[in-house]
Amino acid sequence: MYAFSDWVISLFEKNGIVLKHNRSTYVYGLDIFLYTILSTVGLLLIGYVSHHFYESVLLIILFYTNQTYGGGFHASSHIKCFLTMALGLGVYLLSSLIKVPPFVSVLIAALSFLFLYVHPLVLHKNKSFLASKSKLLVQKSRCILSLEMMLFITLLLFKNEYYLQNFSIALLLCALSRKTSILLSQGQEYRQ
């Protein structure tokens, strides 16, 4: 995908649409944009084929709204990243087949909300330009988390146990993803 992005940007350069000194930024941005679109379509297709389309949509929405500003992918890691997300989706969909008591869903969600609130932001080294906006990004993350908490409470009030459980498992996967980002970022600091 990186080669395709590079080719498209070279066409834009020839036509004067982009400046050469910003080339790497444009290639990176287009590569991530295309990867995000294709991986989202792939995950939705998995959800559709497995007859869990709406559950997949819920996970994707929660995952993207709780993003950690990770980024920094290279072409070879797109496949690894997609396979990791597909595996996470598979675990998520399989977990929806096991019925758990509502108090377990509430406990999972509460712990996940707490973790995501305490760790609202992880910047990948390629996104260090966002460091100056970290306070705003933390505020945005916590605001979105508050909205998600209100939605969870609404599901709880309406006693929709199926989506309550799916929501809590999706939040748990978001928290695990955030923890993974924290560990990877600490590993990068350690290596430097």
Write the layout of secondary structure elements.
Layout: H1 2-14, H2 23-49, H3 53-65, H4 75-95, H5 102-118, H6 134-157, H7 161-191
Helix pairs in contact: 1-2, 2-3, 2-4, 3-7, 4-7, 5-6, 5-7
Provide an overview of this structure.
By secondary structure, the chain is an all-alpha fold. Helix content is 76%, strand content 0%. The chain has 7 helices and no strands. Helix 1 packs across helix 2, helix 5 packs antiparallel against helix 6 and helix 5 packs parallel to helix 7. The longest helix is centred in the C-terminal third of the chain and has 31 residues. The two termini are 29 Å apart. About 3% of the residues have low confidence.
Overall pLDDT confidence: 83
Subunit arrangement of the protein: single chain
Structural class: mainly alpha
- Percent of residues in helical segments? over 70%
Question: How many alpha or pi helices?
Answer: 7
Largest sheet: none
Number of strands: 0
Strand percent estimate? under 5%
Order of SSEs: HHHHHHH
Shape: globular
Distance between the termini: 29 Å
C-alpha Rg (nearest Å): 19 Å
The low-confidence runs, each spanning 5 or more residues with pLDDT under 50, are: 71-76
